[in-house]
User: Which sequence fits this backbone?
């Protein structure tokens, strides 16, 4: 029987584990929540019971409330994944805080930033289907994730997914409270659109970097859900589909 172990990187706040490789821990087995929720919740329920037994039941209430919070925080709901060609879905639940053009390695990219409050689902999902070509961990600071400086200076995990027609980069960025970035895939793994790939614990940010020509469908202030909300459309497949629909809508076009 294989032993379930986690391989940590030299950095203490980020670890990578494989979901499908034999002998490795799966990230989630379609439970109602990430397994960490069970660990925290059961431990705190035990603390509440012990404190209540040694003192008075009322003294165990704070630990019970904290246990309930952890069970709720680590929830992992199922999502309906869009099947539309070229769709880029949100990698996380949260609020869109920035839609702008930025320069990355000399090339113009369109950036969509999503802030996750402590009340949002913190499970992260792949924005597109493809093969993971690069995973780069960057040590950094822990500024407020809503600030512009966090995109470059905060601790983060930078993932590049080759979607065939073009690559999409998304970042898991630690925030003021977040101290643990989890990524469950490795270079060479195939991921599907909306597939679970990790999480950031306790308040954070995710950025998605797209081709400058991407057709963005969200704006600052919009609320999005990981895996189900479409952020943008990219790639030649989408362009061909739009051209076909436009042709059929014209007078004389085939119906």
Assistant:
């Amino acid at each position: 029987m294989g032993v379930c172990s986690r391989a940590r990187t030299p950095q203490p706040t980020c670890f990578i584990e494989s979901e499908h490789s034999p002998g490795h821990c799966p990230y989630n087995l379609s439970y109602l929540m990430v397994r960490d929720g069970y660990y925290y919740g059961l431990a705190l329920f035990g603390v509440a019971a012990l404190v209540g037994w040694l003192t008075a039941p009322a003294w165990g209430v704070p630990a019970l409330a904290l246990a309930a919070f952890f069970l709720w925080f680590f929830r992992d709901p199922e999502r309906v994944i869009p099947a539309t060609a070229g769709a880029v879905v949100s990698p996380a639940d949260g609020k869109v805080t920035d839609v702008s053009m930025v320069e990355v390695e000399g090339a113009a990219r369109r950036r969509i930033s999503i802030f996750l409050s402590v009340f949002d689902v913190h499970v992260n999902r792949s924005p597109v289907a493809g093969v993971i070509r690069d995973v780069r961990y960057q040590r950094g600071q822990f500024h407020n994730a809503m600030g512009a400086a966090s995109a470059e200076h905060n601790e983060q995990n930078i993932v590049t997914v080759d979607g065939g027609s073009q690559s999409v980069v998304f970042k898991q960025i630690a925030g003021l409270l977040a101290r643990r970035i989890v990524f469950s895939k490795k270079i060479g793994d195939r991921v599907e659109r909306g597939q679970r790939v990790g999480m950031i614990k306790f308040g954070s940010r995710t950025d998605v970097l797209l081709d400058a020509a991407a057709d963005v469908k969200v704006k600052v202030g919009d609320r999005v859900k990981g895996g189900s909300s479409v952020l943008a459309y990219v790639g030649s497949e989408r362009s061909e589909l739009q051209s076909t629909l436009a042709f059929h809508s014209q007078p004389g076009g085939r119906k």
